[in-house]
Structure formats: C-alpha cells, structure tokens
Design a protein that fits this description.
The structure is a homodimer. Chain A is α/β, with parallel strands linked by helices. Helix content of chain A is 28%, strand content 29%. Chain A has 11 helices and 18 strands. In chain A, strands 3, 4, 5, 8, 9, 17 and 18 form a 7-stranded mixed sheet that branches. In chain A, helix 4 crosses helix 5 and helix 4 packs across helix 10. The longest helix of chain A has 13 residues. Chain A starts with a strand and ends with a strand. The relative contact order of chain A is 0.16. The interface between A and B is medium-sized, with 35 and 35 residues. Strand 15 of chain A pairs antiparallel with strand 15 of chain B.
Chain lengths: 312, 312
C-alpha cells in the first residue's frame, strides 16, 4: 500500500508498504488524516519513532466511518486495572510509539479503540475528534467553573480547540497568541484574544487557571506569571528538551502544575454532533497522500492551522 | 533588646536592638525558637531579607504561652478575600519578608495571628507547631486515602514531620533518606524507611504520591521517577536557584506537581495535644541566644535535626 515512512528523521512516500494485518485487530481504510505538531516533532527527530506516523484520522471499517483512540493497551497492568488505560505500561500508540499510524491507505487498531462517527458529523469535522478529546482532557483534570478566570497561551491548532472547549464552561476566558489571523478567528467566536505584547501591557488580572498550548519556554513563563497564588497551570503541549523553571516560586505561590494528554472521544463526538464547537474554519488545506511532503511543509508554516491528508 | 541581626549575608548578635512596638500588634516575649532550613538559606544569601530572622517560636503574651502564624496580612486584597490569606499580596512574613522575626527577646505580630498553647503541650513541643502545620498543608491540598502508596523523599527535620503526619492517614508510607540515625528514628515509629541506594535497588513500586522534602535536584528527580502516571508530586521544600526538568514527561505521564507552604496551626496544635505525633526526639540541641552562632553551625551539620534557641 501507499504510505509515509519515517526513518532516521527522514520522511518519504512509499508505495511498497504491506497493508497491516494484525490478528484480533481491525484493518481500517484511512479516509482523512490530520497533521499534528507531534508529527512535525517526530520528523525533526525529537522522538525515536520509526515507521508510519499519523494519529488523527477518520477511516472506514465494515462499511462505517470510524475514528479511533490512539493507545492500544494490555487491559492487565496496574494502569489498565485502575482506570488509567491511556497510561498502560505496555501500550503502543498509533503513529507515535511502536505502532504504524494513519498516514497511509490502511491502519490497524484494536476494535475496542474504534468509535463510529454519527451521520451528523462530516468526515472533515471528525478528523478533529482526537485533538478535541485531548482539549477536553483539561476538564477531566481541573474543575473549571463559570466565572473562573482562565488563560489560554497559544492560538495554534491546539489552542483554538482548547479555547473553544473552555468557552463552553462559562469561564472568563482570555487567549493570548502571536498571529493576527488566528486571534481574529477566536474573536469571531466571541472569545477575548490578544497578542502577547497587548497582554503584557494591559492585563493586570491574575488568572485562576492557565493552559499552556505553545510548547515553548516563553509560553510557559507567560502562563506561570499570569497565575494567582494557588492557581493551576495546565501543560497541554509537549516540549522539546528540558525546561528550566523557578521551583521555589511554585512552592511559595503553591502553584499546581498538571500535565495533560489524551482525552474522552465520546464527549468530543457529542460536541461535534451538537455543533457546540466549530472546527471547519481551522482547516487550512487538504492534500493527497502523493503531495504529503508539500502538506508537511505547509503544516510547518507559522501561519498554518490544520493541514489534512486525503488518504483514500 | 538582644537579638540576631542579618545584613549583607552576615549574621551577628546585637544587644542594641529596639524592642518592637507596633500599633495594633502584640508584643510577644520569645521563649524558644527553632532554626529552620529557610533560616540557613537566608544566611547564605538566597533571599534578600535584612533584619532579625526566625519564624518558628513559642512566646508569652498577656501571661499565656502562644505560637503565631507567620504571615501578617491585609484582609482586603483578592487573596485575603478568597480564603487564601497566606498568599496576601501585601503580606509581611515573620523573619522572612519585611518583618523582624523570632531570634530575639521580643517579636511583634498581629493579635489575630496568635494561638494559645494548651497546657498539655510543652514549650519544646509547641515550637514545632509552625513546621508541623506546614507538613499538614499537604493533606489540605492532596486527598490521601488509606492504602495509597506515598513516598517521602528526605529524612531531615521537615521529612520527619511530613512522614509522621502522613502515617496518620493509613497510607502505605515509605521514606527514603541518606542518614542512618534519621532513618532509624522513623523506623522506631514503625515507618518504613531506607537509604536511596536501597530504594533504587529494591523498590519497583510506583507511588501514587511523592513528597519532596530535600530541596535539591536529585531528591526531586528521585521523587519524579518513583511516581506512577497521573501521580502527584508535592514540592515541600524551597530550592536555591532554578531547576531543570523534563516537561514532556510530565505531560506524557500527566503528572500533577504541587507547591506546598504554610498550613493549619489549629490542627497542628490538636495533634500535639493528642500525642498523635512525637516531636521531642527531633530536638538535637538547645542553645542560648548568646551562643546563637554555635547554634547555627550545629543546625547546618548534615547529621543535625532540630536546633533550638532559648531566647528568654
């Protein structure tokens, strides 16, 4: 089959890949896949993955459209038996750890990972289920109430989804970013947003919760500074390399810092079906698999939001 | 009056200090004061404080023995009005920030900061109320249930109090440290404790909660490694300088990191009155104010636990 192959930090299109056939797993025909920042970082060699990348997808299985949770788990370890199966000690992760991913004509996943896509949701919308679920994980971890002062740092793909999901809580929401068009997109949905220089000049508010969605040290520093004592700092991005921080200030201000990863697919599907979030405006381009290299270049541009790959 | 004076990182005994007279505040005659690691760090110049250090004390006011909460607050700012007065934006902190402390014959604090010491508690025990309250703050922040696997890293003054208070929860407790005598003290109370090399060799358990009480980077790294995914890492010590950590691993494992500072005096007094904790064995020496320099040398020794100053 046709697919993208990552090896020694080099990504290339191959047509000689075997279609996956895994005993006890579903072979899913990939319809559409999304390029995520993790994919860009994989390509830059930040993680040791070798194989087919890609973990955001909509596919077809037994005549139905499906999306799929990305962690394939053992159901037996301590984490699995304690309701933390996304942290399974023996997990493989679609297109990220030990398992070929979605940038190909077919992928394999355990059947129990798949969720059917309701007819009300277009395929272009459903490709956002995985990152939308990751955005919703924040609300699984931190209780956010109406009126809470919440800051989202970052106006990119993830920041947009995080902001839209947090806006549903009735919190007092502010997004700070660096890209006029992306900030305008948030403003068009009634979400208060501003550049970081506007933020630093004008905002004396001290936030109850700050969500870091940039994956860089300056974003993290801004989020930290913006918090009130006993505030909560959610780390929603991965970070290349180590980060240095003032640990004493975390102690003196009794800050809670919480890492946040995969989230609930069922709730993400429900929000899309109810049109409670709007993801179509985040799509900047769609390429065929044959043009995947151009798609990756596009996705890496500073002004880009979501770039999709049509795999079938 | 007589007292210790810290200026430009130099600590000396003075006899020419004015006794504090603050309108609306209590003038407390200091009976006994404890030397804390923060005092040692103040002396090393890690914080910009200038004046009389000392924040753990028992004193006498209007004929009664008292202990005192160390944050003097405004009662009006956002933090004070939202039940976080220990984070008051305009606070001074006894012997730490903008307010002379306890290593002198007299100190001043707002009357509302003082708590009477019940007769059942000796003065030597009551001097532990402040650090004991700080240890109890952990349980205000993190729900710890019977059977939870909890690790305390550090067998020093703070680690000992943290371990004793956590043992009361019925959790499955382990303490890791570097000093045979301090570990033996814990073992004598039935608390499982071991050296860090024993820990690294033999312990495959993954902990639900780890409390870092060493204030150094290797203690923090050990605590982090010991946690299961979605575990909670409590930072109970301050740290000199910045710390470097792998932020991606916090995200991937969805770790919660929480800074912890001052805690509830009333509950600390209750535990001492009920003999639920035992602090007397932690006292390694008591010096008069005239011998304060020797007391500081003693407190800085690796094998030392609590060193006290008799101020009256």
């Amino acid at each position: 089959m046709k697919g993208l192959w990552l090896e020694h930090g080099e990504l290339r299109l191959r047509t000689d890949l075997p279609a996956p056939r895994q005993a006890g797993e579903a072979q899913v025909r990939v319809l559409l896949a999304g390029i995520c920042n993790t994919d860009l970082e994989l390509r830059r060699g930040y993680y040791p993955f070798e194989g087919i990348p890609g973990h955001e997808f909509v596919g077809e299985f037994e005549g139905r459209r499906v999306v799929g949770e990305i962690n394939a788990v053992c159901h037996q370890c301590d984490a699995c038996r304690n309701d933390r199966s996304s942290h399974c000690e023996r997990r493989t992760v679609l297109g990220i750890v030990g398992r070929n991913g979605a940038f190909a004509e077919y992928l394999a996943l355990p059947r129990s990972n798949l969720h059917p896509v309701p007819d009300e949701i277009t395929t272009e919308e459903a490709v956002f289920v995985e990152p939308l679920a990751a955005a919703l994980e924040i609300q699984e971890q931190v209780r956010i109430s109406a009126g809470d002062r919440v800051l989202v740092v970052g106006d990119g793909k993830l920041g947009q989804l995080v902001a839209q999901t947090l806006a549903l809580t009735g919190c007092s929401l502010t997004v700070v970013g660096r890209h006029a068009a992306k900030l305008a997109l948030l403003q068009s949905r009634g979400i208060r947003s501003m550049t970081d220089s506007q933020f630093n000049d004008g905002t004396s508010t001290r936030f109850d919760v700050a969500v870091e969605c940039t994956g860089n040290a300056s974003g993290l520093a801004l989020a930290r500074r913006a918090l009130r004592p006993r505030g909560v700092l959610v780390l929603k991005s991965t970070y290349a390399g180590d980060l240095t921080m003032n640990a004493s200030s975390l102690v003196v201000d009794e800050i809670t810092l919480i890492g946040s990863r995969c989230g609930p697919f069922s709730r993400a599907l429900q929000l899309l079906r109810d049109h409670a979030v709007e993801v179509a405006p985040l799509i900047h381009a769609t390429y065929g698999l044959d043009d995947a290299m151009r798609a990756f270049e596009h996705a890496a541009r500073r002004d880009a939001l979501k770039v999709l790959l049509r795999c079938a």
